[in-house]
């Protein structure tokens, strides 16, 4: 590889840590196609590589991601934000894991059967993710819609990494993921999350507790240890990808206020006062 | 005991592979060199109609009749992923990216549950199409080559990769004459190359052929001429296998010493 290109590679790697950096197998990496200008432009929208057939000039909407462990209050906040944004006159589209038409239900079945290995599951989640990007998120962003994503690649990367999947590999998988305009991380202690989740369903699911990882026979400790591992991965990514970290232990209304402020700045909404309608009143505690 | 109708593959001489460390399991997503396990992996690649499946079938028969420990695996055949692939194809939901990812999921499932365990368990594994199919086909669909290489990084590197090369016209004719109707994705209709399915297929196959040709050196393909008579080609294939792989290792019983 000529020196110049090498430097460019390095630059790209530091700008977009998800780009593949290591030699790949089998064989040597195929020669990269030469589209430097397009690549540079694409890096503003993608972590590494552009999606096939992507045209950046079409993007007029905003992609807003809410990340956080089970029980951090993500879905509550998204329901409230959707109502607020709609009342402000913004069209909203939501997305989340396992919601694709292509493989959403297949993943549900794989999880129920517990017959799947970690790598296959990761790749099924990646399929689910990109199907939603291409059929739901991108069309919405082209139409000027605000997309609220309930979790994003960060959860998927963290889950893979704690299961021993090579970090460069799994982030390389998501090189073609769109870069969010804002990424919020609702950070809570695993103990708090456990209590909230238990209260919700009077049970903790197999996967939430990371039971496939044989961390502990004790459900509580399995949950705590698993979510702590995930949290550590998030701490690493939070710096790298400039997450906006919010204290998920705070009240729903306090967290919501902070979210509205940051989103309001991005969308040019000046007054961010909001009180939920009667339909969502029960979430406002 | 091999029957008299087949050549004895044990006649060749080759140093046995050093015993692999059995305790170090590969980490998914890391490249797996062929010396990390005691088994051996033989792969066939080539465009549709290149004759590769026929040849691998005959190779498999030869080894089966000889009583060797082997496992045969086919591209796109994992039951776990099948329903998703079928739905995606029927409803034409697949984009180049999701087409690629679903096939990778299929491969990962076979890799984690069959190919790797069997290679570690000292088996001879025969694969009809391997990661190079994805490299060629998905690159022809426009997926970034670097991304594709990363996607399949967990795949063990084959001991032999046979590339059956047939001229475009020959291969396309073989397929078109034997099939009433090409399927949508098979014909590459999603690329919008032509409204005519046969023409689209031809253009798509030409791109794939070009991608395969690029990999011949970088991925150590053993190139075989797909236009040769079947039995001649099979003879070449068996000779190469016998010379490159220490087949004794996969015999049912160690030869008795008298």
List keywords for this structure.
heterodimer; A: 285 residues; alpha/beta; B: 258 residues; 8 helices; 5 strands; disordered N terminus
Q: Provide the residue-averaged pLDDT of chain A.
A: 86
Please report the total strand number of chain A as a whole number: 5
Strand order of the largest sheet of chain A: 2-3-1-4-5
Report the average pLDDT across residues of chain B.
Answer: 88
Q: What is the succession of H and E elements of chain A?
A: HHEHEHHEHHEHHEH
Output the number of helix runs of chain B.
8
The shape of chain B is globular
H/I helix tally of chain A:
10
Could you give the topology of this structure?
The complex is a heterodimer of chains A (285) and B (258).
Chain A: H1 3-15, H2 36-43, E1 62-67, H3 74-87, E2 92-96, H4 104-113, H5 118-142, E3 146-150, H6 153-162, H7 167-173, E4 182-187, H8 190-201, H9 219-240, E5 244-247, H10 252-267
Parallel strand pairs in A: 1-3, 1-4, 2-3, 4-5
Helix pairs in contact in A: 3-10, 5-6, 6-9
Chain B: E1 40-46, H1 52-65, E2 70-74, H2 79-90, H3 96-120, E3 124-128, H4 131-140, H5 145-151, E4 160-165, H6 168-178, H7 197-218, E5 221-225, H8 230-244
Parallel strand pairs in B: 1-3, 1-4, 2-3, 4-5
């Amino acid at each position: 590889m000529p020196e110049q290109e090498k430097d460019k590679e390095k630059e790209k790697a530091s700008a977009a840590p998800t780009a593949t950096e290591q030699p790949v197998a089998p064989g040597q990496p195929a020669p990269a196609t030469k589209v430097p200008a397009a690549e540079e432009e694409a890096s503003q929208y993608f972590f590494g590589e552009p999606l096939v057939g992507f045209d950046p000039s079409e993007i007029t909407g905003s992609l807003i991601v809410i990340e956080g462990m089970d029980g951090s209050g993500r879905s509550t906040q998204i329901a409230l934000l959707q109502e607020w944004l709609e009342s402000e006159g913004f069209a909203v589209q939501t997305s989340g894991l396992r919601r694709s038409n292509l493989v959403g239900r297949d993943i549900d079945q794989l999880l129920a059967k517990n017959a799947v290995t970690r790598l296959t599951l990761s790749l099924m989640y990646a399929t689910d993710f990109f199907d939603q990007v291409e059929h739901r998120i991108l069309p919405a962003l082209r139409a000027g819609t605000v997309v609220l994503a309930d979790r994003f690649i960060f959860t998927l990367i963290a889950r893979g990494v704690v299961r021993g999947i090579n970090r460069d590999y799994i982030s390389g998988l998501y090189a073609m993921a769109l870069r969010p305009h804002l990424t919020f991380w609702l950070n809570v202690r695993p103990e708090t999350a456990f209590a909230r989740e238990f209260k919700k369903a009077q049970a903790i699911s197999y996967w939430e507790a990371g039971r496939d990882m044989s961390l502990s026979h004790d459900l509580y400790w399995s949950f705590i240890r698993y979510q702590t591992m995930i949290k550590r991965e998030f701490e690493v990514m939070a710096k790298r990808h400039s997450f906006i970290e919010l204290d998920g232990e705070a009240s729903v209304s306090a967290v919501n206020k902070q979210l509205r402020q940051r989103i309001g700045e991005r969308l040019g909404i000046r007054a961010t006062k909001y009180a939920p309608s009667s339909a969502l009143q029960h979430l406002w505690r | 005991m091999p029957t008299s109708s087949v050549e004895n593959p044990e006649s060749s001489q080759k140093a046995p592979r050093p015993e692999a460390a059995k305790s170090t399991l590969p980490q998914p997503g890391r490249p797996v060199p062929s010396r990390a396990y005691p088994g051996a992996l033989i792969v066939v690649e080539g465009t549709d109609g290149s004759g590769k499946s026929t040849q691998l079938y005959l190779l498999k028969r030869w080894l089966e009749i000889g009583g060797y420990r082997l496992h045969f695996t086919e591209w796109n055949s994992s039951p776990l992923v099948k329903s998703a692939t079928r739905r995606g194809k029927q409803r034409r939901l697949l984009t180049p990216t999701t087409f690629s990812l679903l096939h990778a999921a299929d491969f990962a499932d076979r890799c984690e549950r069959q190919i790797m365990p069997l290679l570690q368990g000292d088996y001879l594994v025969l694969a009809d199409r391997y990661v190079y199919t994805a490299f060629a086909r998905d690159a022809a669909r426009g997926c970034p080559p670097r991304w594709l290489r990363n996607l399949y990084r967990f795949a063990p590197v084959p001991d032999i990769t046979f590339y059956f090369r047939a001229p475009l016209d020959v291969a396309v004719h073989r397929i078109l004459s034997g099939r009433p109707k090409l399927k949508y994705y098979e014909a590459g209709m999603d690329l919008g190359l032509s409204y005519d399915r046969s023409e689209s297929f031809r253009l798509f196959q030409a791109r794939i052929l070009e991608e395969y040709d690029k990999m011949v050196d970088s991925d150590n393909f053993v190139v075989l001429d797909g236009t040769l008579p079947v039995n001649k080609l099979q003879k070449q294939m068996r000779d190469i296998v016998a010379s490159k792989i220490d087949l004794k290792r996969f015999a049912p019983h160690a030869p008795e010493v008298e």
